[in-house]
Every structure is written in structure tokens, then in C-alpha cells.
Amino acid sequence: MIVLGIEGSANKIGVGITRDDRILSNIRRTYTPPTGEGFIPTKTAEHHRSNILQLIEDSLCEAGLDLKEIDAFAYTRGPGMQQSLVVVATVVRTLSLLYGKPIIPVNHCIAHIEMGRLITGARNPVILYVSGGNTQIIAYSDRKYKIFGETLDIAVGNCLDKLARELSLDNYPSPGLSIERMARKGRRYIELPYCIKGMDMSFSGILSTLKRLISKRHKDETIEDKKKETQNDKKEIGLDANFSNGTFTEDICFSAQETIFSLLVEGTERCMSFTKSDEVLIVGGVGCNLRLQEMMGVMAAERNGIMHAIDERFCIDNGAMIAYTGYLMHTNGMKFKFEDCDVTQRFRTDSVEVKWRD
Prior knowledge:
- The protein is α/β, with parallel strands linked by helices.
- The chain has two domains: about 1-115 and about 315-350, ATPase, nucleotide binding domain (Nucleotidyltransferase, domain 5, 2-Layer Sandwich); about 125-315, Nucleotidyltransferase, domain 5, CATH 3.30.420.
- The chain is about 45% helix and about 20% strand.
- It is built from eleven helices and twelve strands.
- It has helices at about 40-65, 80-100, 110-120, 155-165, 175-185, 205-220, 230-235, 245-275, 290-300, 310-315, 320-330; strands at about 1-5, 10-20, 20-30, 70-80, 105, 125-130, 135-140, 145-150, 195, 200, 280-285, 305-310.
- The strands form three sheets. It has a five-stranded mixed β-sheet, with helices on both faces. A five-stranded mixed β-sheet has the order 8-7-6-11-12, with helices on both faces. Strands 9-10 form a two-stranded antiparallel ribbon.
- It is globular.
- The two termini are about 20 Å apart.
């Protein structure tokens, strides 16, 4: 079965084609805002509108197929940014009508999970799903991907994106990667809030503290003689007054990553213990972070378990994960009426019946 899938829930627009469980093409383009800006919904949707048709053509060309050969069209129903989701849904609904083929609305989070399972061969792992808009600790049970823990406020990716804006780091290729690169050079840990309740986490306090430290540092830089800073100020920042701004930025990024990823690893370990799982799978855009993978790998190894992760080709939002999940849904008897194929910004991972798993 050949499925064409389109993903456009955030700042990436991707088109992928699969034949059963084989990926034939997987192409995407990313909307990158100027430094200091976030992903403005109207501009992101305009980016998707201007690129989606060419991406479909390029994806078909790479797969060596014609639109008439596509058996079904899959798209991201949600969760995500409303205006971006509408662009994708409009195109897919049009293609479905033109060619008289089934349309399959896919849950974005579950698509990440299934792509991760396909690429890594993970059997029944605890899943850490970390992205710009979502942070969830998930495990499969009784035909549902059940959420055992999640963020109580903002997502981990959102937290890192806002930190990058505060530090005026480059948004290309992604704010998270800019932070990761800076963090590799950091050496001094700055203490930050650490909030976890069972398997639920909070990141807003971390972000507020980071903003306060950065704001204070900026004010200090306007003082001609930095040596006049008080000893208390030095202690709060955690740095000597004669350190350069570059070192401060590196240490802030290092401290943010170490704190945030420790929360994620701790919550995931609790879920592994509770479900008696010996596998963990990291999915979502933040899952590309090598430091997160390293920390999770250490935890899994100490439990005599296995850590699975995938690279940016499949970890970051892409069309192939939508196509493959659409294939799983369709071949397991999940049919959808055209009028029910809409979009929603809130589409819970645990609201979908997972018919393709025992």
C-alpha cells in the first residue's frame, strides 16, 4: 500500500511517501524566523502554503511515482498550530476528492512514536516524547498509548526556544541546536529550580529564573566597572564578574540542559520501574539532543536496559512518519468519513485507539 503523508503542525512542512513499512521519500522545509523571534502562526502558515505543492512534486519525483498511484492520503490532524494544520488539511482534502482516495487523519504524537519504533525496532518501550509543544512520558497498555507523566505548564522545547530568544541565539537550523552547541562549551553549573511530582514536570520556574539571570547580566554589562558588583550578586549569578558574556551564555545553556534533562530522565526512570520495562525510546524534535540521549543511555544501562533514539531525519517532524502511521491505521480497518477529517490544536495521545498493536 502506497501512502502519501503531509506534516505541518509547527514550523516544518514535510511530505513523505511510504510503501507499506518502506520509506520511499521524506522531504521537508523549515520556517526559520529572524533571531529573537518565535514562530508567528500567520507567517508559518504562509511558509507552508508557498512550499507544500512543490514538496509534493519533489517527493513524488524522489519516489518515482505519480499521484494516481497513491492509495491513500494521510495528514496531521493535530495537535499543533491551527493555521498551519489548516493548510495541510486543505491540500489533502483536495487531493482526496480529486483522486477519489481515502483520507487518514493522524495524531502527530503517535506518528512520532510509530516512526521511532519502525526505525529502531523497539518492541514495547517507555516513550519520552519531547518537542516544542509537547512533553510526555508514555507507555502502551490495552490498545492505548497512555500518558504516565507530562509537563504541567510549558513544553520542554518551548522552554528552550524562549531561552534561545532571551540569549539572542540563532534560530537556524533550530534554537535548540544553538543551545546544545553553546552548552557543550559550558563548564560551570548555575543552580536552577527543579520541579517534578511523580512523573509530571514543570519548566516555567526554570525559565523565569533563567530570564532573571540573563536580565541581570545585561544590566551589569552597562556598568563600566564590573568589579563594583557586590559579592551577593556574584553568588546569585554563579560567575566571577570578569567572565566574558560568551562564557556566561555557555554556562547558562549548560545549566539549563543539565537541569531540564535530569527532570526528564528521572520521570522516565520512574515510568520504566512502574511498567517493568527494559526499553526507553526518545522521540520528538528535542530527542535529537545528544546530551539528552547520553543521560538517558546512562540511566537505561544502569537498569540493564536499552535506550533507543533516532537522528534528525526522522526525529524532527516529517511527512514519512505521517504516511507510515496512516498505513498502519488504514490496514487495520480504521476508516474515516470525509466530513470528520478536520483539524484540532488539542489532540491527546491517549485519545486514539491503537488497533495495530496487540
